[in-house]
Amino acid sequence: MHLTLHADYSLRVLLYLASRPGRVTSTQEMADAYGISKHHLVRVVQTLAGQGYVDARAGRTGGVTLAREPKGIVLGAVVRAAEPDFDVVECFNRERNACPIAPACGLKGVLGEARDAFLSVLDRYTLADAMDRSRSDLADLFLPARAS
């Protein structure tokens, strides 16, 4: 299973903001810190704002902050909000399923169970848990390298 960049970046944005509690952060700052497209990050922030995970304000004094405490942000819910689907294999999608063995295959149930287990593990953790598991210098890793 592979998360889309949208889900990956959603988790990264939340980690970035949690590592700077109470600070308003620009999407450009986060894009620079991660070396990723600002345009893509803006769409990620829109998704997170739409789900109530972040507050995003436009303009010169605008920026992004966490809208909830990290302990109130369940990682499984974030991934579900950011992922377009969890069709692990073609036969999970009834409309696009062209697999000739789908009616007789026993893998769909096994793969569905594995997907559910993956999400179940994410549901046991919050952003606060991820922060607790992160190194104490996490925020420093986002700083630009200094010239020697």
Automatic annotation (TrEMBL):
<keyword id="KW-0238">DNA-binding</keyword>
<protein>
    <submittedName>
        <fullName>Rrf2 family transcriptional regulator</fullName>
    </submittedName>
</protein>
<dbReference type="InterPro" id="IPR030489">
    <property type="entry name" value="TR_Rrf2-type_CS"/>
</dbReference>
<dbReference type="GO" id="GO:0003677">
    <property type="term" value="F:DNA binding"/>
</dbReference>
<dbReference type="GO" id="GO:0003700">
    <property type="term" value="F:DNA-binding transcription factor activity"/>
</dbReference>
<dbReference type="InterPro" id="IPR036390">
    <property type="entry name" value="WH_DNA-bd_sf"/>
</dbReference>
<dbReference type="InterPro" id="IPR000944">
    <property type="entry name" value="Tscrpt_reg_Rrf2"/>
</dbReference>
<dbReference type="Pfam" id="PF02082">
    <property type="entry name" value="Rrf2"/>
</dbReference>
<dbReference type="InterPro" id="IPR036388">
    <property type="entry name" value="WH-like_DNA-bd_sf"/>
</dbReference>
<dbReference type="GO" id="GO:0005829">
    <property type="term" value="C:cytosol"/>
</dbReference>
